[in-house]
Amino acid sequence: MLYVIGRQEAYDFDLSRELSEFAGRSTDLGLDLNTTLLPASTPEELGAFFDPLRGPAIRIPAE
Fold first, then answer.
1. Are 11 and 41 in contact (CB under 8 A)?
2. Would you give the DSSP letter of residue 7?
3. What's the CA gap between 48 and 63, in Å, rounded?
4. pLDDT for the residue numbered 54
5. Cβ(8)–Cβ(41) under 8 Å?
6. What is the per-residue DSSP string for 11-63?
7. Which one, 10, 24, 61, 63, has the greatest CB density within 10 A?
8. b/e burial code for range 7-42 (CB count within 10 A of at least 16 → b)
9. Cα→Cα distances 59→7, 15, 55, Å
10. pLDDT score for 4
């Protein structure tokens, strides 16, 4: 499972489309990858989806 956390509190439809394309390309390469896009949130809010204090977590700076 791959959780992608956006930079904005509002849902990012453009990023959602890019994430879907990424997941599709991953499937084409034989990688079964489930993805979920979440808006920017506090650690407590993210806890509804996963434990943000438990790894592994990969932080990728994005422009």
1. no
2. S
3. 27
4. 76
5. no
6. --HHHHHHHHHHHHHHHHTT----EEEE-S--HHHHTTTS-TTSS--------
7. 24
8. eeeeebeebeeebeeebeeeeeeeeeeeeebbeeee
9. 12, 16, 11
10. 87
User: Cα–Cα distance between 5 and 8 in angstroms, integer?
Assistant: 9
Q: Tell me: the pLDDT tens digits for 20-60?
A: 999 999 988 998 888 889 888 888 888 888 887 776 667 66
In this predicted structure, what is the pLDDT of residue 62? 62
Peptide bond into 56 cis (omega under 30): yes
CA distance 28 to 9: 31
**Amino acid letter at 31?**
L
